[in-house]
Amino acid sequence: MADHMHKRPNRMRARFSKTAFPPHVSRRGHRALSFALTAGLAACVGGAALAAPPAPVADDAPVHQDSIVAVINGTVLTRRDVDNRGRLFALSSGLNVSDEVMARLRPQIVRQLIDERLRQQEMLSRHINVPPEQIAASIADIEHRNGMPQNALRDRLAQDGISLTTLIDQIRVQLGWTQVLREEMGSRGRTTAAEIAQREEALRHEDGKPQYMISEIFVPVDDPRHTENELKFTETVIQELRNGAPFPIVAAQFSQNQSALDGGMMGWVQEDSLDPQVVAVVRQMPIGAISNPIRVAGGFVIATLEGRRTVGHQMGTVLSLRQAFLPFTTQLNPQNPTEQQRATLQQATQLSSSAHSCDDLEAANRKYGEKRPSNPGELVLERINPQMQQVLAGLSAGKASRPLVSTEGIEVLMVCGRQQKNFAQQTPSEIADQLLNERVEQTSRQLNRDLHRRAVIEMRSKA
């Protein structure tokens, strides 16, 4: 078993969401064809705002920064482009990535940038344009999700020597590629009632069989006779993951599957939806482990197991909540709270004892400026962090929680209702999303292969 996986540090799980309540957006399916910024990229850059500055990536003398690494159908890729993307990865992962590690990552960064150039060219050939306003909205969304003031992300990138264009280009390609796939799929982008019914019938026959919640990073291999470089890169990525790099961030940066748009998340899958080599590993994996390189058709897979269940059987508790957030005017220093922060704590304590209904809590949240939504959406008790589980598990409906203090302010929560639900029973909407995701992945891989087959790519120098 030790040959196939390694336990991931639990401390990194909290990095993906800044608050106790993760963003409530569908992980799969239609989101892959939407025009919103992907969660993987949001986490990628959002994590950077909270992380310690990474070690700088070693540069050659400035004269070499504009040296040409590759020419892709006449479009130039320079050393500067490669180094900027490397810095973005180092910053977003929050790790002090050594020069040696970055040197091992560079070949795959070059490959990724070549793929992006090909995708950009395909976007241009189809006259697909991503408006600057859409990119600006995506960057603003990253800042908003992570409690950053306007333009803070631009300033942070500049501080670490990263061109804003590096991030803009990555966002533009991700947004534009979803439009390319939408066009390419055409009518296949819609699932019919008959297809959903067929999948429901198949699931009934699968009742009692295992399902896995898996995230993946797929590293393609161009020439199956020579896999040394790709294997070396895969092993480097695995080491960084085991050192604490967040899986969604690394997947968003380096995975060549369409699941990279969701930080590598595949969702709940049955064994017959996975490569046999992957099945053999995940059957043995403990939750949270990082696999060794798994050789599959077309490349290597790095897998992490987030959960396992039996088809048709997974009970959980769904909570309907309300919250009131009382903001601080400055960030809290626990050893030296300000007068405003002391007063806010008194107000939160009073609210905790005086609020007797969810309407009371909503009214209080409006009073304090609705800095966070009154209704965070339905939450699954078993899927939130252990500290918050302790708060909510014993909280009776209609009873306010004690004040929950953070550096930004104080929250008071209330359970409005709870119910037991079998999460292994997929709804027609969830099945439609899964079917669409499978088609998106197949279309993306096929189109990528076609673009490479038609391309004229001239490698000029090492990155």
In short:
This protein is 44% helix and 17% strand. With 463 residues, it is an alpha+beta fold. A four-stranded antiparallel sheet has the order 5-4-8-7, sandwiched between helices.
Please, could you describe this protein's structure?
This protein is α+β, with helices and mostly antiparallel strands and 463 residues long. The protein has 2 domains: 5-312 and 428-459, Chitinase A, domain 3 (Roll); 315-422, Roll (Chitinase A, domain 3). The chain contains 14 helices and 13 strands. It has a 4-stranded antiparallel β-sheet with strand order 5-4-8-7, with helices on both faces. The protein has a 4-stranded antiparallel β-sheet with strand order 10-9-12-11. Strand 7 and strand 8 (299-310) form a beta hairpin. Helix 7 crosses helix 14 (428-454). The relative contact order is 0.15. The model is unreliable at 1-63 (pLDDT under 50).
